[in-house]
Amino acid sequence: MIALDHIAVIVSSEESIHFYEKLGFIECKRTERSYDTVVFMQCGNVMLEIFVDPNHPERATNPENRGLRHIAFYVDKFEELNIEVGKIRMDWFGRKSTFIKDPDGLPIEIIEKGSTLRCAK
Predict the structure, then answer these.
(1) pLDDT by residue (tens digit) across 7-53?
(2) In the chain, domain spans
(3) What range(s) does the Glyoxalase/fosfomycin resistance/dioxygenase domain occupy (predicted)?
(4) Is residue 108 a contact partner of residue 99, using CB atoms and an 8 Å limit?
(5) Which numeric CATH code is attached to 7-55+68-112?
(6) pTM exceeds 0.85 for this model
C-alpha cells in the first residue's frame, strides 16, 4: 500500500503561512535553521512541509515548468473559505472547482466536496 505523506512547498515569507491558515491549516511544528525556516502545517489528513526562504528564485509560470503543476484541496463549501475564490468551473469529473494562488504564485485548486476522485478497479 502507498499513501501520500506530505507536500513540500518553498515560499518566500511568513505571508504564505498566514495564507494556509486561512485555508484551515494549523501549524504543528517549526524548525529554525541558519538558512531557512521549516514549518509543518496540517488540515485533516493533509500535511504541508513549508520551507520559508526568500532566497529561492521565483516560480516560472508561462510556460509552466515540468513537474508539480498545482496542489488541490477539497472543501465542504466554497463559502466556508476565508479566501476570495475565482471563477467556479467544473473539473474533469463534474465537481465544482476554482483556482487561486498563494502569495508566491503557486497554483492551488479548490474543489467543492461532492463526488471524490477514484479510479475504477
Answers:
(1) 999 999 999 999 999 999 999 999 999 999 999 999 999 999 999 99
(2) 7-55+68-112
(3) 4-110
(4) yes
(5) 3.10.180.10
(6) no
